[in-house]
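Hi there,

I know you've been waiting on this one. I reran it after we fixed the sequence typo, so this is the corrected version. Both the input and the resulting structure follow.
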Amino acid sequence: MNIFKYLKGDKVMWVIMLLLSLLSILVVYSAVVTLAHKYQQGNSQYYLIKHSVFILCGFIAAYFVHKFRYTMFSKVSLIGFYLCIPLLLFTLAKGVSAGEASRWIEIPGLKLTFQSSDLAKLMLIIYVARILTIKADKLSDLKNVFKYLLLPIGIVCVLILPANFSTAAILFFNCLVLMFFGGVNFKIILKIIGICIVFAALFFCIVWFAPSAIPGGRGPTWHARIENFFSGDTKSNYQSEQAKIAIATGGIIGKGPGNSTARAFLPQASSDFIYAIIIEEYGLVSGFMLLFLYMILLYRSIRIFRDSQKPFGSLIAVGLTFSLVFQALVNMAVAVNLFPVTGQPLPMLSMGGTSIIFTMITLGIVLSVSKGIEDKSDEKTEMA
């Protein structure tokens, strides 16, 4: 039976999605042992089944999404962008908190939570691709770039920032990269970067010298993370130290599946620091292979960008894939202590319902684009 008769689009992407999902099930089942003892009387199967169901739902979502014509997502993003603003505001005001940050909205009656920033990331990137396509002839000066692109990007990022600084920063960077691919004058992008550096320096000074002045109460947390990262204090930098121990003891070939010891000491072993557990159990070789798989994903999206004659399709393909790969690189950099702790999950591998579903939907949209490369229809007419 040829399964690819039903799975259209880039076959390599489908294979990578399957490989990463299978690895995710294996590693999450191993990494949740401590979590299971804490919350489920040692029943690891609870998390295994839950995680597997989310992955299955993610594949179903990706399958149905890739069947749609990708131009449909232009109109969806227009509605989604305006929907995200009240959702993000509601999350800040009434959201479910994790630590000091309100990042989730509880779905009544289902005992499930929904991370509004995941929807906002997806909608904003597609919305930016839409503007780059429709308003291409008006984006030759900074004033119009600010009006059509920077203003909506800034609104979404500012609403995400109080609860999740790293997500807001990564999303803004992803949008800048998409603007570059979309043909915005490089001098304008450099001016934007210069302005951002000034604001970033001012923001850093506030975080460093007056963290309590930042709305939302996250200032002291950001200050502590930066201070711990640069101080090298192993006691205060506990998570990063445990991740480094896991990586060091894993060696070249690893301890073997299910043999992690760091999972008992490493907070967020099944989510934020799952890359360290992968290396501990499967070795540095597997760590590099995982990085290679993400690079292949990015390469395949660049091929779509190169081969597609449709501006909107090529932009959402490269923009969405770059956002996933860049997030993966940030997660890996945190695990090896190159970056301060950010709280970014590893796409398609970390445990987390919203993250998995939206990652699969994202790749489903990219697959929809790759499926329609040979289509000769008028893209802009369909987007209107």
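Quick highlight: The beta strands are 96-98, 101-107, 112-115.

Best,
R. S.
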